[in-house]
Amino acid sequence: MNSERDTGPSGAIVTGAQLRAARGLLNMSVSDLAERTGLALNTVRKAESTNAAAPVTTANARLLVATLEDAGVVFIPAGAFGAGVQLRFPDQEPLKRRRDS
80: domain CATH number? Predict the structure, then answer.
């Protein structure tokens, strides 16, 4: 995959696994993420469909990462143990699902 197509705001490659994990940490559904980003549901599913670099455009990868970061996730670039995600604040409450509001 061309790294220009799947980079996050920092220029690091974002993986589908990171996007899935970030969404899970936030208790956010695929539908919630699609709604928050304005992307099609299938685009979000495609982005999360692999453990490798997210197979979406650079603009969509950046939008997904920025939305998840704004919600409280920190993306960790690949290192000795691989790429990952964590909550910005460990005691952060999970987001309320929009349909539960």
Answer: 1.10.260.40
